[in-house]
Design a protein that fits this description.
mainly alpha
Length: 61
């Protein structure tokens, strides 16, 4: 009887752990996706800034 309780408790603990892990992966994935979007936006704005700088530089020449 005691070993059955221990097995059930172990399964419950494992299920909780996997739930926490999947939540962590989900949150981590969301943060990573947001970070990717943010860094891509920064790169694009940087390219736009550089393009504008080069164009204005070209106009001055």
């Amino acid at each position: 009887m005691a070993w059955m309780v221990a097995v059930m408790a172990g399964c419950e603990c494992e299920a909780m752990l996997s739930a926490v892990t999947s939540i962590g992966l989900y949150v981590g994935g969301r943060l990573e996706a947001q970070w990717t979007v943010l860094s891509a936006a920064m790169m694009v704005s940087g390219f736009i800034f550089i393009d504008a700088f080069l164009v204005s530089d070209g106009l001055q020449l």
